[in-house]
Amino acid sequence: MIVTPKIFARLAAIAILAVLLQLSFFSRVELLHTSADVLPAVVISLGLLGGSMTGAVAGFSLGFLVDCLLVAPLGGSSLVLLGAGYLAGLFRERFDIHSSLVPPLLCMGLTLFAELGFAAVQVMLGVDAPVSVLIVRDMLLKSIYAFFLAWPIYFGLRRALRPALVEEPKVSRRRQPTVLGA
Amino acid sequence: MYRKQVRRRRAVLTLLIISSFLLLTITYGQSSGGLQRGVSTVFSPLQTVADRALKPARDLVGWFDKTFEARGENSRLKAELVTARRQAVAGQEALQENAQLRKLVELDRGPALAESAYEPVIARVIARSPTVWNSAVTIDVGSGDRIRADDPVISGDGLVGLIASTQGGSAQVTLITDHTSAISAKVVPGGVQGVIRPDIGDPEDLILDFIDSTKDVHGGQAVVTSGWRAQGLASLFPPGLPVGEVTSAPIVEQEASQQVHLRPYADIANLDLVQVLTGGSRG
Q1: ipTM > 0.90?
Q2: CATH number for B207
Q3: Distance in angstroms (rounded) separating the CA atoms of residues A128 and B196
Q4: What is the pTM for the complete model shown?
């Protein structure tokens, strides 16, 4: 990703919008007693579009912002989201995204990874109360929601950041005619 | 060139990971720092605008979710209504008796009630934490509205939580479902005392822990804050705030673990308007 000041401003606006939407909308809407978490999906999409560095920095920044707004211990969300963003970016650098199903599937898997990460950070910091097994259902549902949310998020972000993306030239599906005797 | 890029990438990643751990180490277990307060103050007007703008969309999604749930809830509510009617009649009688007794002992002018004169401040929830681990909401009133840390927060149904920190125009509320929450409470009628703790991951289940296993607690009994006061120390909550209803109280669990399960009265997942009880007996 080529980050010019204009693209940087767009990335900042995306981060702020994502955090505001998460805290004011997605966290407060429940389907099957679980609310969706779009922040991992946004970070993973940015990682897939911009590479591991973009993913990691975006994850750290979004985590930092959300922890600031919730006045939670700083660093926990940053650590988890930077991991998710970095892994998504690494995937993009190592493999080609051939199918449009890849971003949603990756979002689903890495959101589950992020939810497990949040749990691990909380356990590391010390949990003072009993933990219900329903938390497993919460994690699984969050990752399923991420699968469906990844479509608009990934393709929306790709559109918003198109000028900055380094994309491989499209391979033409039409075959060149074979010239016999040439 | 490629190796240089890889090295730089690894260096940035290491730096970010170290920064995260450093931030965790520095800020964990401390009150909110100036940076967090600043960011929160800057963003609270934006959050208020986003909250208002997104309310119709939230309501729409909530309507679908509630419609699915309503079928099962209907029969349960009908059964509860019968019980509530009986209790309401009994309550009316108790109110009448209470008024007479108050007159007799002149409690209205007594020091106990005068000291705990909480002033309610109405607030709107403008943001909510995305994970169940950190069960907190942000409200649109803050230190400018006389809100202080540790003020109790209630909804129309019952206890919601406690103010964790305040800024000029917003405040963070730690909900009763947060893992750091612990509320001294008692079962009524009966007066069995205990400590309410959350069951992380299940916002509709609370645990009344450390109860006296020799006393019987059964389903349907109400649980209210006990609001104790002893040796210069006092509970952060006034006495008698409704918290929840005992849902399951198996004898085995009561005797072995000294705990029963309850469902909070307040709809913790769908909080919109709440009241902060400012002032009171603290300070």
Answers
A1: no
A2: 2.40.10.350
A3: 12
A4: 0.73
